[in-house]
Amino acid sequence: MGISQSKLAEMLGISPARVSEIMTGKCEPTLKVARAISQKLDISPDIVLGV
């Protein structure tokens, strides 16, 4: 999508380190962050939640 991790972190209101942890699978996003990812990136919540 051409968005840097820093820009994504800013969009979601979380730290760039947290974005990195979520993207590498070291941690799961909270429901609030998963919802924000889905809305801000216009992708299905199922994809974000791995359903």
Please render the helix and strand layout as text:
Blueprint: H1 5-12, H2 16-24, H3 31-41, H4 45-49
Structure characterization notes:
The protein has a single domain, classed as 434 Repressor (Amino-terminal Domain) (Orthogonal Bundle), CATH 1.10.260. With 51 residues, the chain is mainly alpha-helical. The protein has four helices and no strands.
Task: Please name the defining characteristics of this protein.
51 residues, 434 Repressor (Amino-terminal Domain), mainly alpha
Can I get a quick summary?
This protein is mainly alpha-helical and 51 residues long. It is built from four helices and no strands.
Which secondary-structure class do the elements indicate? mainly alpha
Gross geometry: globular
| Main sheet: strands, sense, barrel | none
The percent range for strand residues is under 5%
CATH-defined topology: 434 Repressor (Amino-terminal Domain)
